[in-house]
Input
Amino acid sequence: MYTKEELSKYPYFEKLLDGDDIIHHLDSLTNVLSRRDVADFAVYLIEKGIPFTYGMLDIDNFKFINDTYGHKTGDAVLKALADGMEKHMSGFGVVGRFGGDELLFIDLEHIEYEQKKEFFGGLYGAGGVLRKNIDVSGFSPFVTATVGCATYPYDAKDHNGLFELIDKTLYRGKTKGRNCYIIYVEEKHKDIEISHIARRGIYTSMHSLVRQFETVPGIKNKFASVLPLLIDEMKISDLYYAGEDCVMHSVIDRGLEEKVTDVGRVLSNDVYFANDPSLIREISPCFYGVLEKHGIESFMVVKVSMGVKAFGYLILAECRSKRIWQEEETALMYFLAKLLAATIMLTGERL
Output
């Protein structure tokens, strides 16, 4: 939590807080600066001609954390991350809450490109603020985030222009798979359109899946033909299929073949994903045992079904990796499962 003494190191806040209660300038949940105050500080710096790097941090898959561990834990994660950012930037910058799961920060020290890389190296590296488990409320979710940043006056001359670049670089980081930072570089990023990059990847991949299913005969050949696309797009190490015989076998030919009689129990709808197998220990003990046996930490289960008829399950799995599955990835796997189900219905073939 920011104190009046800490913020008064900066002349802007020293004057602002003179005779005013600091609580009016802090976000009620995280106790870092409010959205208005961090933005007003940025405007003040621009008016004074003081160079600074402006950034926005977005917690990856925050909805997944809320849905899996509960909103109380989600709030605790957000507060812990804000505390970490406050301490990490002590002495050279401030952090505030923009809204939801997004934080804004102002860095007065790391202005040049290599300096910014050094800053992010500390933020994401061992002992830093991100890419680690955060112990809160009796749980320990693995937390990553995506960050976009730009620098005044080199990248933009006013607050609106600077904020637009932050927004653009943040979206660029999300489309690259999240869990990364993007430093605005004019030659690379000036022509990026947010609406374009946010949709291009998923629609292109879906179109490619349909084209392969239309042109390649035989369901096994169809499936084999889309594997390189899935491996390239999603950077997966293995993909499994459990059919009506309840045998979970590797599709990418890594050798695993196990009986899983209760994999469907994890599903309340067509898709389930997690990076903690213990969450399903009571629901699906057989499936949980297979995951534990093979060191699988992160997994996604997608039902291959059409209407009320289920033909099996696609299972993505990562060993010794707390991967956070992205919305685009779950959408792509759901789409593939529906293509498979439709093909099975039309041809009667099985994988």
Summary: The chain has two domains: 4-192, 199-347. Confidence is low (pLDDT under 50) at residues 195-199.
